[in-house]
Design a protein that fits this description.
The structure holds two protein chains of two kinds. By secondary structure, chain A is of the alpha/beta class. Chain A folds into two domains: about 60 residues, no CATH class; about 190 residues, von Willebrand factor, type A domain (Rossmann fold, 3-Layer(aba) Sandwich), CATH 3.40.50.410. Chain A has seven helices and 14 strands. In chain A, helix 5 runs parallel beside helix 6. The longest helix of chain A has 19 residues. The radius of gyration of chain B is 35 Å and the shape is globular. The chains are: A alpha/beta, B mainly beta.
Chain lengths: ~300, ~950
């Protein structure tokens, strides 16, 4: 990998002159590595340059955001799974821990000190108000800023058991008037969907991928809309959301999400048209079909 | 150096920017050097610190936060409906009427954000408020199709009136009644062997001089027929009556977090409203429920204490009051209209409980403590409730008068006489008046303790088990104005068991029934099987008891608030009361042991029997593809000792073997002599007797796709099977097993499909994410729908005539099946939904032999489809505008009404049996606009 890095200026001489860039999270086919030099990139149908690519063994800054308000049993499983996996991380993978309950707070700065990470994860209380929706834009902005400034791989990973009904904001159009029998607004989930759309649209402007593992699969109408929205909003950033349907799935999904994050490449592409507001990205490689984020909103 | 770094935030507040940068950089270099980070990670860490310097509240210093910006979010909205957008409802179209009026405005706002008092308090990050208001103004025309007397009938002219088969209906003059000297008591009564002779009114017309003046005065409030839906003269009054509904309400809550481990929420709510009920008659004689004014107020205080990462306590205290007042129309004397009830199909006049005032107060204390220990999560929940209900609700303050055909019939002969003809003569078969001296003030309480453990046995197996211990106190009256019938007491009038007793007197407690204490168990198991976590098997078992009876009317206050009853000695021969004579004055309270004699005595079940149910469920959930989940589930439910009311519990019912006495049963004194407690007419048990059983099973399959390319859906099918002995009246109350049949209210098959499709255009979508057209015109559209398809409910066939001397109450008699005749038709249509020739009215004084509910015949199924189109326009920042169009019953589909299930005799079949009159439904459009900020 170090060799590839050294080759970059030679392979892509225009890199230093790029007017703007975007960072694309890319996953090669399972079991394959990404042969970066053979990567062909296009933005809006026009071929563009690959300025840089960071792979699974390269530096990573992982920001774990905890949004834990409901179930001690599920939370404990998530904690255990997180810590077991973090223990195995190499020293160039820094992990920061933040809390989403009652606003975004830093519990531990990004560090390779696993004891500090463990202490921060354990220090997070279960309770308070759900905060994913209120903090995900801010955390994605922080991640994107780090990504833009440093060029290292960055990922935001929310571990949440939030219930849509535990937000401060009332999404259920509460029954104010019990005498109103003709109301249909209360059986609609449009308030939730509207909020998720708003967040998704904002996240589409950010470049750091957001991942979510939700610890509790819920079936009521509002939470279905909420959890569906979580899938959509992570997809808008190139990340993904997994929703555990049983206790057994909690560690599995935590691990698979972390594996997914650790295994991603961050490919930096040149954007030559500074007026471009939307970038449709296409990537091709000899390794086969790639999984990557294909749509970016640039500027305003 | 760590100390140096931690000082940075404070320096920010001091505004020392130059010094800050230098120290900040120094801190980074030192920190990063210690970890030997790469240049990229060093830059990343530097950026992280720069971006989160205001977020280090917990780790660094609480003084780190900059002044919070005012971050209030919320919405303002308006939803409206207007009949100009709607389809004409099928009910109206079928009657040829114009569109009904519909105006509905639902508007409000909600705002949430930190509490900020300028220069005094900044609650950002710790104190938040939510204020929600909503108002509704609605005016809607409600429709009803009823049967009322024809214009000629009002004058006593019955020449044109026909029986259910269309043959002329004869009415007889009760004043011509005479014993038949040729009557042979050894043979059944028939037209050729009459016990009483009676002459038909000449020309089948009641002379004007015989018409009761009170009945004639009441007719002024009864409208004339205005349609002829049929059959014959039935369904002849169609009304579209305006109904007004208004509501105003707000909820305000404040949420404060402190010391990182505490959160306190205070929530206040207040709403008022007018719940309108459309009148079926535009006069004082309206028999629909009156309009109701309601007030709801509540306060809730909640404290969540996270003692440690493994221990949480949540305590909640709440109080709520609900008040309602009936707003009935009163006459010039300030009195409501009396209630006139006509046996058969005619619409009643006057309302039940026209005047009422209720206030219910609930006080609740709830605490739950959760603790994690190794692989267990323990929880303890305590819930205590105290209830108060203050009520003034006389059911029939101006009297309720029942009219049957008997008084104008040929005694003993069905299909003669008419209830309305008896009304014209002022001859009631039964009358009663509710006397409420003072309101009742009921009090009761309950406490629950729930212990549970969620135990993760291994990686793939989780067991949850628990138990709930509940105590339900029986209802008390603040001033002990409750009474009951005690079978331990001897009635002084006939020396038989059963006499009136009162609460807190003569050794009786403040409540008659014992308090309930029960223990419930529950268990559930989640097991990831097949070696992967994509397949989850779930099992659950619950055993649960109902709450104790807490009827809030004036039930069981008979000694204090009476129900004066007038009974006919023989409804075929003499009236219980003639309208023109009026009601007798009455005196209450009356605490004498014999005070309930001759009445429908109010009886509280003192057995302590508790309604209990058991539920067992199994489900298999498998992720069959990404975001696509298949769920197959089955549930078995069974319950016994379920609460039933007067129609299904009567300890004073006459056993059916007494039907052998045939027409003698029409004589009140003889019939009452056959009752277990002859001093009482009947028992009123409200809904307090724990007697019924049920068994309900269902099998379901659901496939759910959360989202993919903006499309999410859930498809569900469920097959339901339910049987009981209580979903409709049981013929023989002493043999409840014979009433075991399909539940008449369950749809055996049910399918539902919901979907949401977000169009792939606009910001964050694959196409047209930028540019005016893409972002503003084509972006932000979503289309969702909900379609439901269900089979019809099991049909309950009923005889047209019930000549059992009152032994089998109206509505309880079963029909007989005709052997060898198939009740099904090949292609059910509204003209013939089933084959009525397969059934027949049982003979006089004979129980029916068919099941209570038909085992295979179903009514018409139904379909409904709601659609919503949603357009979101993103404005600057967090602001957006959202437009919503909801189409309720989007396809404007009409669902058929239920078929006529009344079965006649061989001689007088019901012409209309098996036929369906009309259908219901109509598309309604609701438009909405919401501004989010």
């Amino acid at each position: 990998m170090q060799f590839k890095k050294a080759l970059f200026p030679l392979l892509f001489p225009l890199a230093a002159f790029a007017a703007d860039t975007i960072q694309v999270p890319v996953w090669p086919p399972e079991g394959e590595s990404l042969p970066v030099p053979t990567l062909v990139a296009m933005i809006g149908g026009e071929k563009t340059e690959v300025l840089n690519a960071q792979g699974p063994t390269d530096d990573l800054m992982l920001l774990i955001v905890l949004d834990l308000t409901e179930d001690l049993a599920l939370v404990e499983q998530a904690r255990t799974a997180l810590l077991e996996r973090i223990e195995k991380l190499p020293p160039n993978h820094l992990v920061g821990v933040l809390s989403a309950q009652n606003g975004l707070r830093v519990l531990a700065e990004p560090t390779a000190d696993h004891a500090k990470i463990a202490a921060a994860i354990h220090s997070q209380q279960v309770g308070g108000r759900a905060g994913l929706l209120e903090t995900v834009e801010e955390s994605a902005q922080i991640g994107s800023s780090i990504l833009a400034k440093s060029g290292v791989r960055v990922a935001i990973f929310y571990v949440t058991d939030s219930d849509i009904n535990n937000y401060r904001e009332a999404f259920d159009n509460p029954t104010v008037n019990r005498s109103d029998q003709g109301d249909v607004s209360r059986r609609m989930d449009s308030l939730v969907r509207e909020r998720m759309s708003r967040v998704s649209a904002t996240l589409a402007k950010e470049q750091a991928p957001v991942f979510i593992t939700h610890l509790s699969y819920r079936n009521d109408q509002l939470n279905v809309a909420y959890q569906t929205g979580l899938i959509s909003l992570t997809a808008a950033t190139g990340g993904n959301a997994l929703i555990a349907r049983s206790n057994a799935e909690v560690p599995e999904y935590i691990n698979s999400t972390l594996d997914h994050i650790l295994g991603h490449y961050s490919v930096k592409l040149a954007v030559h048209n500074p007026a471009l507001k939307k970038a449709d990205v296409a990537l091709e490689s000899e390794a086969g079909e790639l999984d990557y984020r294909s749509s970016y909103l640039l500027g305003n | 150096m760590e100390e140096l770094f931690s000082s940075i935030p404070r320096l920010i507040l001091d505004g020392d920017a130059i010094r800050l940068s230098a120290l900040f950089f120094a801190g980074l270099v030192c920190h990063c050097a210690a970890q030997q980070l790469s240049p990229g990670l060093t830059t990343a860490l530097e950026e992280f610190r720069a971006r989160t310097v205001s977020l280090n509240g917990a780790a660094k210093t609480t003084a780190a936060r900059p002044p919070a910006k005012l971050a209030w979010h919320g919405r303002v909205y308006e939803n409206f409906r207007n009949n100009a957008l709607d389809a004409i409802p099928h009910q109206i179209a079928q009657r040829g009427g114009p569109q009904r009026q519909l105006r509905r405005n639902q508007y409000g706002f909600s705002v949430t954000g930190p509490v900020v008092l300028p220069k005094l308090y900044n609650g950002a990050g710790k104190t938040f408020f939510t204020l929600t208001y909503e108002g509704v103004r609605e005016s809607v025309g409600q429709f009803s199709l009823n049967t009322i007397p024809t214009t000629l009938e009002r004058f006593g002219q019955y020449g044109h009136v026909v029986d259910p088969n269309g043959a002329p209906l004869r009415i007889f003059d009760p004043l011509t009644t005479a014993s038949n000297p040729a009557y042979n008591a050894a043979s059944s009564i028939s037209e050729t062997n009459l016990q009483y002779l009676r002459q038909q009114f000449p020309g089948n017309q009641i002379p004007v001089t015989r018409l009761d003046p009170v009945a004639q005065a009441a007719l002024a409030y009864l409208p004339r027929p205005n349609t002829n839906a049929g059959p014959f003269f039935q369904n002849n009054y169609f009304a579209v009556t305006p109904e007004r509904n208004t509501a105003n309400g707000f909820i305000v809550s404040v949420d404060h977090s402190f010391l990182q481990k505490h959160r306190v929420t205070v929530r206040l709510s207040n709403s008022t409203g007018l719940n309108g009920n459309a009148a079926n008659f535009p006069t004082l004689a309206n028999s629909n429920n009156p309009n109701i004014n309601s007030i709801n107020r509540g306060i809730r205080v909640e404290h969540v204490f996270t003692a440690s990462p493994t221990n949480i306590n949540n305590i909640r205290i709440s109080a709520e009051t609900n008040q309602s007042v009936n707003l009935t129309q009163l006459d010039a004397r300030g009195k409501p209209f009396p209630r006139y009830q006509f046996g058969g199909t005619y619409q009643s006049m006057g309302q039940n409980s026209p005047i009422s005032r209720d206030a219910t107060n609930n006080f609740n204390l709830y605490d739950s403590f959760s603790s994690r220990w190794k692989t267990h999560r323990f929880s303890v929940e305590v819930y205590a409730q105290s209830h108060q209900t203050n009520t003034f609700r006389p059911q029939s303050p101006e009297g309720r008068f029942d009219f049957t055909a008997g008084y104008t019939s040929l005694p003993g002969i069905i299909n003669t006489g008419h209830p309305f003809a008896s009304f014209l003569l002022g001859a009631t078969s039964q009358a009663q008046q509710t006397i409420v001296i003072s309101p009742s003030y009921y009090r009761w309480h309950s406490q629950n303790l729930h212990l549970a453990d969620t135990w993760q046995i291994n990686k793939s197996l989780t067991l949850t088990y628990g138990t709930r211990i509940s105590h339900y106190g029986q209802r008390r009256e603040k001033y002990d104005r409750q009474s009951n019938i005690s079978f331990k007491e001897i009635n002084p009038e006939n020396n038989r068991p059963g006499a009136l007793v009162t609460a807190n007197r003569n050794g009786y407690g403040r409540a008659f029934a014992p308090d309930w204490t029960n223990v419930e168990a529950n268990m559930s198991l989640a097991w990831s099987i097949l070696g992967d976590n994509n397949t989850v098997l779930r099992l659950n078992f619950n055993r649960f008891y109902n709450s104790a009876f807490t009827n809030s009317g004036h039930f069981a206050t008979q000694a204090f608030n009476g129900n004066q009853l007038y009974l006919s000695t023989n409804a075929q021969l003499s009236p219980a009361l003639v309208l023109a004579a009026g009601l007798r004055p009455s005196r209450f309270p009356d605490l004498r042991p014999e005070a309930a004699n001759g009445t429908v005595a109010q009886l509280v079940d003192v057995s302590g029997t508790m309604p209990v149910s058991n539920n067992f469920g199994i489900s298999l959930q498998r992720q069959v593809a990404k975001n696509l989940i298949l769920n197959i589930n089955a549930n078995w439910n069974a319950g016994k000792n379920q609460f039933v009311g007067n129609n299904l519990a009567n300890p004073n019912a006459i056993p059916l073997d007494n039907l052998r006495f045939r027409d003698q049963l029409n004589t009140l004194s003889f019939a009452n002599s056959l009752r277990p407690y002859p001093q009482f007419q009947d028992f009123e048990v409200a809904s307090s007797f724990a007697l019924a059983r049920y068994r309900a099973d269902n099998l379901g399959i659901q496939i759910e796709k959360r989202t993919s390319a903006g499309f999410a859906f859930t498809a569900r099918y469920q097959h339901n099977s339910r049987r009981d002995d209580s979903s409709s009246q049981v013929q023989n109350l002493y043999d409840r097993k014979s009433g075991w049949a399909r539940s008449s209210f369950v749809n055996p098959q049910f399918a539902n499909f919901t979907f949401l499709y977000e169009l792939p255009f606009g910001a964050g979508k694959p196409f047209l994410a930028s540019g005016f057209t893409g972002r503003h015109l084509l972006g932000g559209w979503a289309f969702s729908g909900n379609a439901t398809l269900f089979s019809g409910q099991p049909l309950r066939l009923q005889p047209t005539f019930n000549n059992t001397g009152g032994v089998i109450p109206q509505g309880a008699l079963y029909i007989n099946e005709v052997p060898g005749v198939d009740p099904h038709v090949a292609n059910p249509t509204p003209n013939q939904w089933f084959n009525p020739a397969a059934f027949v009215n049982p003979p006089d004084f004979t129980p029916g032999t068919s099941p209570r509910v038909h085992p295979t015949l179903l009514g018409p199924g139904g379909f409904n489809n709601d659609m919503t189109l949603n357009k979101r326009i993103a404005l600057s920042g967090d602001h957006s505008v959202e437009f919503t169009a909801t189409l309720l019953n989007a396809m404007n589909h009409a669902n058929w009404n239920q078929p006529d299930t009344r079965i006649g005799t061989v001689a007088t079949p019901n012409f209309n049996a098996g036929k369906i009159i009309g259908s219901t439904g109509g598309r309604i459009v609701q438009m909405g606009l919401r501004i989010n900020f």
